[in-house]
Amino acid sequence: MKLNETHQSTTNTLRGRGYETLAMTGTLMALSQLTAGAAPAEQSTDSDADGTADTLPELIVQGDKEETLYKPEKLKTGKYSVPLLDVPQTVNVVTEDVIREQGASSLRDVLKNVPGISIQAGEGGVPPGDNLSIRGFNARTDLFVDGVRDFGGYSRDPFNIEQVEVTKGPSSTNAGRGSTGGSINLSSKTPHLGNESSILLGGGTASYGRATIDVNQEISAIENAAFRMNAMLHTQDTAGRDQVTQDRWGIAPSIAFGLGTDTRLTLSYFHLEQDNVPDYGIPWLDDGPSPVDDENWYGLLGRDFEETQTDIFTAIFEHDFNEDLSIRNLSRYGRNHLDLSVTAPRFNDPAVAGSEIRRTDWKNRDQTDTILSNQTDLTYKFRTGTVEHELIGSMELSREESENKIREDLNAASLPDADLYDPSPYGYSADLAYTGEVREATADTVAFSLFDTVKLNEQWILSGGLRWESFNVDYKERASDADGGGTTSLSRSDEMLSYRAAVNYKPRENGSIYLGYGTSFNPSAEGLTLSDSETSSANVNTDPEENRTIELGTKWDLLDDRLLVNAAIFRTDKINARTSDPTDAAEIIVLDGEQRVQGFEAGFTGLLTDQWRVLGGYTYLDGEITSSQDASEVGVGLSNTPTHSFNLWTVYDLPKGFQVGLGANYVGARTSSTNVARMRTADSYVTLDALVGYQMNENVSLRLNVYNLADQDYIDRVGGGHYIPGAGRSATLTAEITF
Asked: pLDDT per residue over 522-538, tens digit each?
């Protein structure tokens, strides 16, 4: 199969739409000036006689309590029924307000607001999507959408996200397998009563163009029903990186019935298509980063591409039998197709700084992942004497399937090397053909969980939960036609019991002090692969790794409940990490290692004054391998785990409709590996972002965002054989219309 022209044609089409968006932005600005009568409209805040803004209206959402900007009252995940103040573990929430103000256009952009998360480069065949670690532990499979495990390797766009919730610490009780360092839940936008719409049109440097629309409309012909439509078109080059482009579009319609009644039904569909030129960055030298321009890209335009398509169908049924008893059922079918061809640049001789770069380390996938999931939650509130209980029983059934068809490049013998200092992406055209090798996996999960929140009195709350999970994986690997086409079949079944318990003391109504303990598990088939190789971490005979965490923390609602502050100390232990003896090539993987991450985290989010809002946090991580069969690893820090990380985003509303904002991100030094012989270090860095906004009138506003204000050179993502530089300085101008 030859690499056809579809990829380039699709890219040109999408990027053409992006440039049309730029023209639309200019048109909108002109119309906005006419609408405003070329004079600034009065700001929607009250003002004193001297023109100083006095009050900023609080953002009101449906619920039992008013919520201020940046500060949600509760999490959207059903396993946490108490207010965020009383959740006995560290949880970071990034709301839609922050996403909109920052002009965030990817999940990676959103997660810059959460300390303790490190973004990783694609490595070992892992696709260059949303690969990350939380508190030092890999979390690539710990992403959820509305409480259901997400799937596939792709980069997520926040156009249909209401808020992002990052729960820290092992939590298999809530999330199932994995979640060693924590898990991330993306809460989707859903219909609500009331009519409102918004359109965002943006243009900027690095060929940036973006358009989104969010329309919520009550259905007049059906009582208590509403329809919502979110859509997005995006095109962008990566500032400071040659050739790397992103082109995507998405649509997410949803409809809800019975809003505001005892029985509710929500139906939704999500579709996202992407056509990107992927980035595997720059190869490491033996002693660190290469002495080259960060713009250098070592791929081949005649072979490197990344196309994804994601479709998610969801039905949520909810019924309140009475004020104490309710049921919620979520059914979902999802499918992700990844068509990937990417060059991983490697030195012919990494010890020689001037060596040429070989392009024979090539990663490719034609992979389809699907999930069929059903979750049922039953909530029952009752009393035993003066003690209040909130009991949540859950059942989860899911089937995940994955198929990866392997290809070869028939023209590989003529692959050109790349000059380290001046690589050329031209002069080569791949000829891709399927080898007949196919890797398939089917995973069935059955899980039951029970949670109870016990309110003893106004000061003391006890909470706990158990989850029993059966995880069964059937894996087949068909050899290539050249190797005879034989099939290897492997199966593994794991039954895992996880638990969590916490005590929460509330010295005052607006504060809490908690002590929590929880567990999680990492089965060998966590990534839906199995191997009969005794030296593979996915060995079919290896039991799950076990993780334990303890956390002591406090949370306080301050300034009339408009600002939430939190702090915690914690320790997570992987008590039986996979390890092998490096001096024996035939040594099997055994569960005889230990890893530990301990540290401190503090954060704040909400309003300091009616005009001044903030979001920020700091995390200190001390991670190391405390036991290993490889003696050289003992005492070595965990890879991609910065000791210090800090983030701040703050916006201030000025008189006459203006606003200014500033963001700062600090990430400490990180290493690429725990193997001392192959360990490289990425230096610490600080980046600054800025915002200037103007409310033209009640319905039209403008925002200018500048990213990496100082044009800082830094390593954004760390891999074992390569690293990806961070984007250079860029700017976007966005016009927003609400009506």
From this structure: 999 998 999 998 888 89
C-alpha atoms less than 13 angstroms from C-alpha of 508 in its C-beta half-sphere = 8
Q: Does the structure show a pLDDT above 80 at 381? A: yes
Is residue 663 within 8 Å of residue 707, measured between CB atoms? no
Q: Hey, which bits of 321-361 come out as E strands?
A: 325-343, 346-347, 357-358
- Cβ neighbours for 47, distance < 8 A, ≥ 6 positions apart: 53, 54, 655
C-alpha 214/C-alpha 212 separation (Å) is 7
Residue with tokens 């022209």: 5
Beta-strand pair 362-384/263-276: unpaired
Cα-Cα end-to-end distance for the chain? 50
How many angstroms separate the CA atoms of 87 and 50, rounded? 43
Scanning the structure block, which residue is given the tokens 């209206």? 57
Q: Which of 613, 618, 615 is nearest to 602 (CA)?
A: 618
* Distance (Å, whole) CA 484 – CA 438: 13
Q: Are strands 148-149 and 161-168 parallel, antiparallel or unpaired?
A: unpaired
Report the percentage of the chain scoring pLDDT > 70.
89
**Which is nearest to 246 in space by CA: 217, 214, 208?**
208
User: pLDDT digit string (tens) for 262-298?
Assistant: 999 999 999 999 999 999 999 998 888 999 999 999 9
Helices (H), 160-234: 172-175
Identify the burial level of 483 via C-beta atoms within 10 angstroms of its C-beta, where 0-12 means exposed, 13-18 middle and 19 or more buried. exposed
Q: Which helix (H) or strand (E) holds 101?
A: helix 96-102
What's the rounded Cα separation, in Å, for the pair 483 and 476? Answer: 16
b/e map 382-412, b = 16+ CB within 10 Å:
eeeeeeeebbbebebebebbbbbbbbbbebe
Run of H or E residues at 28: helix 6-36
Q: List the CATH code of the domain at 6-26+72-552+716-738.
A: 2.40.170.20
Q: Concatenate the DSSP letters of all residues of 395-409 into one string.
A: EEEEEEEEEEEEEEE
| Domain ranges (residues) in the chain | 6-26+72-552+716-738
C-alpha separations of 449 from 153, 174, 343, 452, 467 in Å: 28, 8, 44, 10, 4
Higher-confidence position of 584 and 396:
396
For 684, counting Cβ atoms within 10 Å of its Cβ (0-12 exposed, 13-18 middle, 19+ buried), the class is: middle
Q: List Cα–Cα distances, 353 to 279, 348, 389, 420, 684, in angstroms.
A: 21, 10, 65, 8, 23
Tell me how far the alpha carbon of residue 150 is from its chain's centroid: 10
Residue 96: enclosing H or E segment and its boundaries? helix 96-102
Contact 106, 735 (CB under 8 A): no
User: Average pLDDT in the 468-496 region?
Assistant: 96
